[in-house]
Amino acid sequence: MSCSRCGFQHNCICHAEPRLNSKARFILLTHPKELGKDTNTGELMLRTLPDSQRYTWDRVNPPAALLDELRAPGNQPWLLFPSDEEHPAAKYQREAGKQPLFILLDATWQEARKMVRKSPWLAQLPRLSLSPSSASAYQLRRNQQTGNLCTCEAGIALLELLGEVDQATQLNEYFQAFIDTFHADKSGHAKHT
């Protein structure tokens, strides 16, 4: 029987799960195809960052509660997404008296591009682009593009951007435990240490 929290059957990693905090809030806007995938690393953020939240993306009906959060005067929303000519990246600066609200598209890159293209309300948000200092460690899916990060790695980079290095390190260690355990657990045996 699989662990109800981490989802692993033979190699529970709940002992490695940190309790984090951040001055920012993290919103995962998840494509419906991602829900329930055992390779989804957004789950790691939801488990460890108590002020993170997931909304399911819908092309026709945007999540009303998320729209309200984007308009709330105490929030400073940012869409984590590569810039383009029409939507240049903004340099991250925290506005006094506002809480940073990072919107991460929890999807494949192909799905994420469609989500932004088909959601004008997302296109209106200031874009924040990341320049990863190292290659992605995420190799659980085919067709990974060089330079792209998975959802959890993007969260780690955002924590670093905020100067919350200890929190980023702890989330990265948990992410590495997930990556290191995944294949052994899915093939039905205990991980050799």
Automatic annotation (TrEMBL):
The organism of origin for this protein: Photobacterium alginatilyticum
EC numbers on record: 2.5.1.25
Pfam entry (one): DTW
Catalytic EC class: transferase
Keyword entries, A-Z: S-adenosyl-L-methionine, Transferase, tRNA processing
Lineage top rank: taxon: Bacteria
Full protein name: tRNA-uridine aminocarboxypropyltransferase
Residue ranges of domain DTW in the record: 1-187
